[in-house]
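haha ok so turns out i had the wrong file open the whole time. this is the CORRECT one, sorry everyone. sequence first:
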Amino acid sequence: MRPRRCRICGQSYSPDEDHGKTVHRHYWQWLKKFRRDLLILGAGTIPILIIVDYFAIVNGNYILLLLANASYIVGWQIFLVRLPLKQRQMKREWNREAWDEPVVYTDSQLGCGQIQQGKRVGPTKLIKLHRRAMKLTASLKPIG
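then structure:
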């Protein structure tokens, strides 16, 4: 089995692990409720749509048929948009928590010959800091 990649933290894990249940409990609980609501909404609205469509076709009211199906599709789209939005929110919260811990930067991380205490930064920011430090050290003129 191939290892999977977490949508929240990006960590690789095997399918045997309960990564979501142990590391991201809040998201896992929300996802269980979302799936339950998805099942209830699907089981409850499909029979209603079939009945409305049947009466619309029997009576020849194609406007009702169009409106019923359009509202059904739009309603599902609105409901399903919640999943990626919640994933994005949980990912932001996870990254905010992970990067707020104070750490000590080493010489190789900053590239400017000193150790600093501060907030952890992501890899892109680290590369930018390194380039900036290299430019600053290159622009220094010797005294004398």
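Helices lie at 19-22, 25-59, 62-99, 107-110, 123-139.
again sry for the mixup
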